[in-house]
Amino acid sequence: MLYAVVDIETTGGHASANGITEVAINIHDGNKIVESYTTLINPKQPVPDYITALTGIDDDILMDAPAFDDVALQIYELLSDKVFVAHNVNFDYSFLKHHLAAAGYDLQCKKLCTVRLSRKLIPGKSSYSLGKLCTALQIPIQNRHRAAGDADATSILFNMLLDNDLEGIIPEMLKKTSKEQVLPPHLDKASILRLPNQPGVYYFKDSKGKIVYVGKAKDLKKRVTSHFTGNTPNRQRQDFLRTIHHVDFVICGTELMALILEANEIKRLWPENNRAMKRYEHKYDLYVFEDQNGYLRLAVDKHKKNNNAIQSFNSLLEGYNFLTQLIDKYQLCAKLCYLQKTATKCYAHENGQCFGACSGIETVAVYNKKLNSALSDVQNQQPSFALVDEGRKEEEFSCLVVENGKFYGMGYFTDKNYLADGLAPIKNDLSIYQSNSYILNLILNYAEQHPQKLYKL
């Protein structure tokens, strides 16, 4: 078996918007290097100053270097029938695969990551970056941060790893069923093996244990693994993969419960890589309050976190339409509900004169009685129910509760008759979560599709 030990220098951290400035390939037969290749490459774009400071490669050095297309065939032939070896292999592989594809060559190689291999075969080191690892192992590096120098050092490291592999870890990692090489360099395979094939929520963490991404899954193992398949070259994905050091998880009874927990956890933790569910939501609520004259007044306003709302809406128009229906049905005052701001007629207006609450003629007692009747009807129309579903294990049941039109909480029970006496006895055993229109719509849609799981309270 032949190996291609590779190192590249680039203009940036992701292949889709950056070029390659240098390539070094050492062909290794499992004992020694049998062929070496290195070349500078003109990336057809400026080299950033920070790259020049790190590598010493600048625009002047690359001016007369070949373009990647000029050397693509040679690079492809060197790599195509070899095992691709590199320190953080997915970085180098993603660049070369992307640029070879642009030149018309489809690179398909088995891969070995010397970061992952070093963690397994030379455990206990404080750092597995190439420079610090080589210092710890007394591997000389000449021309650090240049492709040939780093490739030579990686080749010496690879020799050590081959010598230390007394249990056949490298052949095991090269099996198609292993999938080891698709994992981020810092994520232990044991973290993936312990994931269950159950619904739940997973948490990707960085080197300091900070949660950088929260996701939900119908099958935790399959979903987490799917993050690492493919060779997408964009910056977001490459930066994301580099940050992942650990994965934790929480098992849920159903996918719906996982969705709800995910939504709450994203709002609670605000992970930097969860973009979709962090977008600002234009949410409005219907509030009631008493004015200085004693009249109860209704108003649709922006959602306030700690205020008790009568009803929630996704848009201001939706709120106004709902309030208009209440005004029409109960003959409420549009002015006192902030839907009529001009000095024109309200519902108690006759012959140019107003006899209603907004003029003070309709008494507080009479008007407030009408408004309280409206609020009672709104309250009575709000559903209260439980969804009884599968638990996390065979002898367990899950319970998800909506009370007065708002999601209250969810939990797990082993007694089939836990709802026999209604909601009150089990409330303390439920985990309480934030309710919003997104979560409530998820629950209502699920209840409509699975009426056999609905328990009215």
UniProtKB/TrEMBL annotation:
Gene3D superfamilies (UniProt xref): GIY-YIG endonuclease (3.40.1440.10), Ribonuclease H-like superfamily/Ribonuclease H (3.30.420.10)
A GO MF term: DNA binding
CDD domains: DEDDh, GIY-YIG_UvrC_Cho
GO biological process terms on file: DNA replication proofreading; nucleotide-excision repair
Cellular component annotations (GO), alphabetically ordered: cytosol
Function: DNA polymerase III is a complex, multichain enzyme responsible for most of the replicative synthesis in bacteria. The epsilon subunit contain the editing function and is a proofreading 3'-5' exonuclease.
Quaternary assembly: DNA polymerase III contains a core (composed of alpha, epsilon and theta chains) that associates with a tau subunit. This core dimerizes to form the POLIII' complex. PolIII' associates with the gamma complex (composed of gamma, delta, delta', psi and chi chains) and with the beta chain to form the complete DNA polymerase III complex.
Protein name in the entry: DNA polymerase III subunit epsilon
Gene source species: Pedobacter alluvionis
Taxonomic placement: Bacteria, Pseudomonadati, Bacteroidota, Sphingobacteriia, Sphingobacteriales
